[in-house]
Request: fold
Amino acid sequence: MNKEPRPHQTQDPFVRFIKTPKGMVMALLILLTLIGALRPQDHFALVNALLAVVTALILDGIVALFHHRKKLFSDGAVITALIVADVLSHMTPLYIIIATTAVALMSKHLLKIGRKPIFNPAAFGLLFAIVAFGTGQSWWGSLALLPTWSIILLLVAGVYITQRVNKFPLVLTFLGTYFILLLAMAIMHLGLPSDTPGDALRVPFVNSALYLAFFMLTDPPTSPAPYRHQVFFGAIAAGVGTVIFATSGGLAYPLIGLLTGNAWKATLHWLTKLETRRSYPETYEQGRANQ
Reply:
């Protein structure tokens, strides 16, 4: 007697992919990118996004061929490229879009522990763009340039994806620490005259903080899974970013905060691995053999 196929076996592969957390992130980023480009002056931003995606797919495809992988299409590359394009100004020259995307993708493959990247690739590439090219960042993909009510769309998308990747402690800790520190600075009149805490508490800066929290800090390979580690990670990213904002201003502070959190996670992983090797050498060697 023939068994009927299970529901998941009859689903289209694309439908199955969209239902995964990574597929949902990609779908929501595409949606935010399309909505963010609704302003007539931002239509060219879609060209930047397309160029970033093509660049990322080519680079990751080359890496896949080098490692003799069967799968050439990289969903992670698309996600990284969309974030890069969503953050950079729509006026950014095309060669900078290509260079930023390339650096972001290369950081994923070169700076890693085991198979996981140390740093969020998009944040690494965007910080490189600021240092190397002095690029402007409008965070237009966070709907920062649209009417204020559009932040509701960002919140709905962000909360949904945070639930899918199980990162609520991280996001809530980051946002709580970030806004409480900025509010305290505003009350005590701390910070720079040019970049005041009050500015960071208003749209469009709030949009960029939410976008960073929902779609960059929650990146599973570069953020911790245990809840208590998520709390530390979120507090570190927010604390470092806020201190840099208060002392230096500029556009790099949220990216530096995130990358510092990534470095903390990598250090914690290395120390845990070292302790396991010292205390349980047989377990450590067995784990290496299974990798």
Remarks:
- Residues 253-279 form the longest helix (27 residues).
- The domain at 7-278 is CATH 1.10.3430 (Ammonium transporter fold).
